[in-house]
Amino acid sequence: MIGYIEGKILSKETDRILVLANQIGYEVLLPGIVIERMQAKSIGDEISLYIYYHQTDRQPKPVLIGFSLQAEKEFFQYFITVEAIGPLKAIKALTIPIGEIATAIETRDIHCLSGLKGIGKRTAEKIVATLQGKMERFALISSKRAEISPLEADFRQQVFDVLVTRMGHKSSEARRMIAEAMARNSAIVSADMLIEEVYQGKRLS
Q1: Which helix (H) or strand (E) holds 24?
Q2: C-alpha to C-alpha distance for 71 and 142, rounded to whole angstroms
Q3: Segment 2-59, tens digit of pLDDT
Q4: What does DSSP say about strands 63-67 and 16-21: parallel, antiparallel, or unpaired?
Q5: What is the DSSP pairing of strand 63-67 with strand 24-29?
Q6: What are the residue ranges spanned by the domains of the chain?
Q7: Domain 71-138 class in CATH
Q8: DSSP-derived 3-state class of residue 9
Q9: What three-state secondary structure class fits 118?
């Protein structure tokens, strides 16, 4: 099963790209959030994607769905567990950053969720009923996470801002969570690593 592809862009369409990897061309469908990032890419550019591989008895032709981040792929796998949301419907629905969708789920923001393409109020309510309480990790994903360099100046401030402004934690609590995460793992050098450690700490507490 294909889980990751690294290669060159052979062609781009509105909802998919063709990637040349090891002399084989792979057609990969892309959610809106990933397509937006592809705007800066040109034919021949190198690209790497985490792949969700979809094939069923009812749909025997394999479908490859690409994501910039492993966490986005994991969110997608949760998202399609909701009744009436299959992979192809989910692709069309993911038009705003994963972090915003996850935050809307955790805060029961039905208005935001029902505004996603193909998602009405009833389906939005099913999303909340199925996924609320499981999304905090994904709510920490920044809309610009894919472009953040591991050496960016103060990654602790990035995580602090997300914990306070998006997740509703008090400033003192956010500082404590960050300090504890850094104490547990002194090798942390990026916002990605810090958020993962904060999440692990919450799971252990």
Answers
A1: strand 24-29
A2: 11
A3: 899 999 999 999 899 999 999 999 999 999 889 888 888 899 999 999 999 988 777 6
A4: unpaired
A5: parallel
A6: 4-67, 71-138, 148-204
A7: mainly alpha
A8: strand
A9: coil
Nearest in space to 52 (alpha carbons), one of 22, 24, 81, 23: 81
d(CA 146, CA 125): 29
Look-up: residue for tokens 């789920």?
A: 105
The two structure tokens encoding residue 133: 């309480």
pTM reported for the whole predicted model: 0.71
d(CA 111, CA 22): 45
Distance CA 32, CA 148 (A): 19
- The torsion defined by the Cα of 125, 128, 130 and 134, in degrees rounded to 10, comes to 170
Question: Which CATH code is given to the segment(s) 4-67?
Answer: 2.40.50.140
Q: Which amino acid is at 49?
A: L
